[in-house]
Structure formats: C-alpha cells, structure tokens
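To whoever is on call:

I kicked off a structure prediction for a single chain this morning and the downstream step that reads the tokens threw a length-mismatch warning. I double-checked the sequence; it's 265 residues and nothing unusual in it as far as I can see. Pasting both halves so you can look.
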Amino acid sequence: MNTSTETLAKPDAPGLTPWLAGLTAATALWFFLYWHLDDFANLVITLLGLSRDNHLGEAVHFFAYDTPKVFLLLIGVVYIVGVIQTFFSPERTRALLAGRRLGVGNTLAALLGIVTPFCSCSAVPLFIGFLSAGVPLGVTFSFLISAPMVNEIALALLLGLFGWQIAALYLGLGLAVAIVSGLVIGELGMERHLQDWVREIHTGTTAPVVGDDLSWHQRFKTGLHHVHEIVGKVWPYILIGIAVGAAIHGYVPQDFMVSIMGKDA
C-alpha cells in the first residue's frame, strides 16, 4: 500500500494559501464530526424508528457509530503519514541511519520503518543500499523488519475498532520485535554470512535527496493521493468487517461470549 512520490513531483501550480485554508477547514470539520459520532448514531436509529433496547437497534447504532469513526481515523492517519513519507527518500533514510551505533540505530531504524514508503519489493535494493552507506547489518534488519510489520493503516484500524490500548500494544510489540531482532543479528556478527559481492560493496557518496525537491503544495497533494489510493482499495473490507462486528454486538448474547472467554476476559 506504499506509494512513491517521484511520479507526483511535478512543477508547482496553485499557491500554498488555498491548500492551507482547505486543510484548516478540513481539520476543523474532522474534529467536529469525530466528537459528534454518538449524536449521529443516535440520529440514525431515531430516523429509522429503532431503539437501542432491541437487538436490531443496538446493531445499527454500532454500525452507524463505528463506520464514520474508522473512516475518519483512517483518512486522518493515512493523510498525515502520506505527507511525512515525502520527506523520506531512500537516500535520506540511508543518511540518517549511517554511522549509528547499535541500540540507538536500531530504535531509529525501527521508527523510520513505520513512516517510510518502501514496500516489500524494495527490500533487496534497500538492503544493498543501506550496507553500501555503512549502515550496520543489525540496524538494517531492524528497518526491514519494522517496515512491513508495523503498518500505519492497520494502526488506524486498530485504533478505531479496539481503542488506543490495542493499537499501542500492536505498535509497541512490532517495534520491540524489530529492535530486538536487529540487536541480536548485530551481536551475532552475521556479516560473515553475506555473499562476497555484498561484502565488497564500498561506501559511496549519497545521491541527491529527491524528497527535498518537493514543495509543500506537492507534499499536501501526495497526502491526498495516498488517501485516495489506500482508502479507495480497503473501504469495502472495512464495511464488511464493521457489519460483522455490529451483528455480533447486537445479536450475540453477552452470556454466550462470557461462557467462551470466561468472566474475567
């Protein structure tokens, strides 16, 4: 789901002021809608002549509340991350990680893995590029493990569906696995297992950072492109998932769930 900003790096056309005005209005609207989700859900069941005292009304209320909540969170997170990703070209990422010692480098690499727009098809070129820039092998693996494991889209969905505790647990465990794995690989001295042609790669000069050439207008536009591409692909699955959750919430008796999971679950 990661997008490249290179194809969007076109000459700046409109001024920055309309974008800032639009983003300010969109942010205000986002917060207004988010803080009135319960009012919206109550309005929906009222218009449908339903009540939360019955199974159907409770299921519809759940669906009407969680659907806009998840989409608001998804759009907000994807847009922000899409803009952030315009600052992280492969060259800049290599420069940030080069020369870092174990521990600090692993933590920074794992954090960069969350926001950088590199997909699994970029793993081999990135691996070689990081090594050629002098990035330690353990630090490189922390980045390569974190990038696909901790996904901003999954983080937004978990936040919307299960709350910040589950989202924080997902984020923390993903980062912990990436950092610890990189530290272990670094301590084991796995460089000796690299192929000869990889070990012979010499550190070269860093290429110009493509992301630095983007204007703020282009960065904002990239964020919108990111939202359009990702949300446009996943929205049917989100609706299906929330509908299933609403049916379970409205129709599955609480005592039935307790009998399976236990009263303390």
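Update from on-call: the warning came from a stale cache, not from the record. Cleared it. Sanity check on the structure: The chain has twelve helices and no strands.
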